[in-house]
Amino acid sequence: MLSSSVAFFGCTDLEEGTYGQQVGDKFYATEAGINAALASIYNEVRGDWNGKGIAGADRGWYDLNETSTDEMVIPTRNDGGWNDNGIWRAMYQHTWTGSQEFIGNTWNWLYRSVFKSNLAVELLEGANADRARIAEARILRAYFYYMLMDGWGDVPFYTQNNLTVDQIPQTPRAEIFNFIVKEIQDNAEFLPETKGGQFYGRFNKWAAYALLAKLYLNAEVYTGTPRWSEAIAASDKIINQGGFTLTPNLYNNAGTSAVFGDRLDDQEVILAVYVDALSAPRNIIGIRTLQAPHGTALFGFSTWNGATVHQDFVNKYSDNDKRKKQWLIGPQPGGVNYSLTLSSLTSAGQSEGARNAKFLPVPPFEPGNSSSNDFPVFRYADVLLTKAEALLRSGGSEATARELVNMVRNRAGLDDLEGTLTLNEVYDERGRELVWEGHRRQDMIRFGTFTAARAFKAPSSSIYRLFPIPSEALRNNPTLKQNPGY
User: Fold this and answer.
1) CATH architecture type of domain 194-247+380-449
2) Of 120, 103, 110, which is closest to residue 13 (Cα–Cα)?
3) Bond into 367 cis (ω within 30)
4) 8 A C-beta contact, residue 104 and residue 474
5) How far apart are CA 446 and CA 390, in angstroms?
6) For residue 25, what pLDDT is reported?
7) DSSP for 364-375?
8) Are 7 and 35 in contact (CB under 8 A)?
9) CB-based burial of residue 249 (10 Å sphere; 0-12 exposed, 13-18 middle, 19+ buried)?
10) What does the pLDDT average to over 444-464?
11) 211: which residues sit within 8 A by CB, 6+ positions away?
């Protein structure tokens, strides 16, 4: 069984060896075989260098979905730090191209993950393995395709590893959307309902429905047809049957300790990425934000003085909002004094810009390279806000939507909203609650704000709502059509 996180995220490589004999012997129907098949996929989920993983190391999926938004910016400092040939500025200002490193990294990671998922499904189905484990592999594959479809629109699609790269057909976004929905509908009820223990960090039934709610919430972007009632129904599966709650004290110590540390509360976090800096790295989110002397004073190693935010975003929080304390401003250990104001994207002062402590590094450490903060992929607060938004958009009960938003606000120490709840209030609440968790790009696209002007960024073309297909992928498969405008 996959009770050990180290074993679960081990380096089992299903691309090596001969499988005919093993499948014939039903190896992949045994616990060891099932674990080997699934561990190979989950190994891709955790963050590492070269764009691997959902979050944790830079220049991959997380940065595509954060540094392109208003809630994270990595400015070039006045000593030239973080210039990196302008790649971070290009992300923030929407001037990237198909040769951008992050885009190629993420594309390659996702298709490697699809390949491993296809192989796992084939091996487990061929051995008539436990149906719940087959369902888990299929849902994981659907999740990788969700990220591909969300980022690139029409993408190469295949479910069997019997095609060469140049033969894989480019499939319309709406068809991939329908495939993902069907995979979840066909498999979610086979997944366990158990939270925590051996299922910590794994797709269970509730994580599958959280993914389904995300799909339906963004269905109008993906297909042109809204699916608000379906988003409500998927959210209700979790709200009415999952037994989740908001962690009461989540933000009580924000700024002095990590909001999300070494182990996440599985009463709120529906799906987590397990991280251990020594055996299952990596999380550099907190390391990347703090100024070097600040990190040395707290942890004994220099931190990177990179990621920050423009003051306009921090000013969305009221002073009595507990969540505002995660933004470090003013004097800090190590003689650092962060100013709220970020004055430049090209020559920012060393201490300019608030720093985020949501992932303030926790041990064990790989000094200077990784901390052991786990990462929340889906959590209950997001589900509540998803249902609230879908209710408002569909003309449903405003009172119920307001109650859901107030649950999230009350946990942050805020009073109930007065008057009629608006979509803009839901949008701002999502920003305040889910900051630096990888949701902002998707939210901004859905609310029509992604390409709008903001500090240091002019209005950008609607083409940037999709990423360009990487140049290398176009060379490898000449049948692919580049996204319009690139």
Assistant:
1) Alpha Horseshoe (1.25)
2) 120
3) no
4) no
5) 12
6) 55
7) S-BTTTBB---E
8) yes
9) exposed
10) 98
11) 139, 142, 143, 146, 180, 184, 378
- One fold for 1-45+97-191 and 194-247+380-449: yes
d(CA 12, CA 484): 39
Amino acid of residue 483: N
For the chain, the residue count is: 486
26 band by pLDDT with thresholds 50, 70 and 90: confident
Q: Where are the alpha helices (DSSP H) in 9-130?
A: 20-24, 31-45, 61-66, 87-93, 101-126
Nearest by Cα to 74 from 90, 61, 50, 52: 90
Q: Whose CA is closest to 273, among 467, 143, 387, 157? A: 143
Query: Residue 8 has what pLDDT?
Result: 31
pLDDT at 3 over 50: no
Residue 476, judged by CB atoms within 10 A of its CB (0-12, 13-18, 19+), counts as middle
The H or E element that residue 377 is part of is strand 375-379
pLDDT single digits (tens) 97-142: 999 999 999 999 999 999 999 999 999 999 999 999 999 999 999 9
Report, in this order, helix, strand and coil percent for the chain, each rounded to 5.
Answer: 45, 10, 45
Taking 90 as the threshold, does the pLDDT of residue 290 lie above it?
Answer: yes
Residue ranges per domain, the chain?
Answer: 1-45+97-191, 194-247+380-449, 269-376
Strand-pair partners of 48:
52
Contact 11, 279 (CB under 8 A): no
Side chain identity, residue 37: A
Residue 128's nearest CA partner among 47, 200, 24 is 24
Torsion of CA 17, 18, 21, 26, to 10 degrees: 60
Q: Which CATH number fits domain 1-45+97-191: 3.40.50.300, 1.25.40.890, 1.10.10.10, 3.40.50.2300?
A: 1.25.40.890
Rg (CA), the chain: 22
Q: At 336, phi and psi to the nearest 5?
A: -85, 145
Beta bridge partners of 269: 379
